[in-house]
Each structure stands twice: as C-alpha cells, then as structure tokens.
Specification:
Layout lengths: L1 H25 L5 H14 L4 H25 L2 H8 L11 H21 L6 H4 L1 H6 L4 H26 L3 H32 L3
Length: 201
C-alpha cells in the first residue's frame, strides 16, 4: 500500500494527492498519514509547494466527507434500526431507544463532534455519516470539516517536510498515535457499556 501511494504522488502530484485523500476518507483503512507525510517530504526535492499539497489534500478530504454525508442523508433512523436488528449486527444489542438517543445526542453536540473527530483515526471519516443522518446544515458541516482537515493536513505535511528522508519513521509514530487513540475509544465505550449494564439502575 505504501509503495502504491508513493507511486501515485510521484506520478500525478497534486491531483494524485487529492484523489488519494478523497478515497482515504471513504475507505479509512487507507493511511492518510503515509499520504500526507510523504507528500510533505516530496516538497523538499520537487517543484511541488507545501501549500499546494495542503490545499489539494484538504479539497480531497472535503470531497470524501461530502460523499459520506450524502450517504448518511439516505440513512434514516428506521433504516439503521432494521440493519442492526439483523444477522451479525444483533451482537451489538442496540435498541431503538439507543439509536434515537444517539441521534438526539448528535443533534445537540454534532458540531463539536465533527470538528474533534477530524483528528481521530477512522472517526474522521465515519463522523460524516451521522452528520448526514441528522441533516446537519451543510454550510456548518463544510466549515467544520475544512477547519479540522486543514489543521490535520497542515501538521502532517509540515512534519513530513521537516522529517525529510526519515518521513517513513514518523509514520511508525503515527501508528502508535492511532493505536493509542483507538484503545482510548474502546476503553471509554467499555466503561459506558459496563455502567449501562451493571450500573444498578
């Protein structure tokens, strides 16, 4: 995967970065860290400019976010309830009340969630779906998405440029960051579930 990303950036420049980041937002397993860090390094030895890379990456992220937002708009709460009441999804043991409470929570705190989740692996992509489901105003969604992705992209592109040939080592540290954040999210979810099931209501 890493070699594929490097080849695309080297071959297509800004357009390649836009496309890769757009796809990464739709398919989170594609590592944005590799794309951004390598793209930052590329500005050291090519004519590509740092701000050109950042703008291309931000536009790509926004394009991917809009795609997922529109998917979310097609998913009503009732459709999600039907999905989670079938097959393997039954293991989540989600009730209609849980989903509706989640939607009400997003209605209230959605703007903060959209911004904060842009800095969290995987969540920075998936957060666009509930934003669409709750019919979050598009102008607010776009503003928060642009701000969050711009900050994230700027930090990683400059980090890649500063790291130079060692950019791939930085990727390893970003992997640790991703694992730490993921573990923290699971821990929080675990605590919430324990309190819900054994809280002695």
């Amino acid at each position: 995967m890493q070699n594929f990303i490097i080849d695309i950036v080297n071959a297509y420049g800004y357009a390649g970065i836009f496309l890769l980041i757009a796809i990464e937002n739709i398919f989170p397993p594609i590592p944005s860290e590799v794309i951004l860090l390598f793209s930052g390094f590329v500005t050291v030895y090519t004519n590509m400019k740092v701000w050109g890379v950042i703008v291309s990456a931000t536009l790509g992220a926004v394009a991917g976010a809009i795609f997922l937002y529109e998917i979310g708009r097609k998913l009503t709460t009732e459709k999600v309830e039907r999905i989670f009441s079938r097959g393997i999804f039954k293991v989540f043991r989600l009730k209609k009340e849980d989903l509706r409470n989640a939607r009400r929570w997003f209605d209230r705190y959605g703007s903060k969630a959209v911004l904060i989740c842009r800095f969290i692996p995987f969540m920075r992509s998936i957060i666009s779906v509930p934003a669409g489901m709750t019919r979050m105003k598009m102008n607010i969604f776009l503003l928060l998405t642009i701000i969050g992705t711009f900050i994230w992209n700027t930090a990683l592109v400059f980090l890649g440029r500063l790291a130079g040939n060692a950019w791939d080592r930085v990727v390893l540290y970003m992997d640790y960051y991703s694992m730490a954040v993921g573990a923290l999210i699971f821990l929080i979810l675990g605590i919430v579930l324990i309190k819900k099931n054994f809280g002695g209501n």
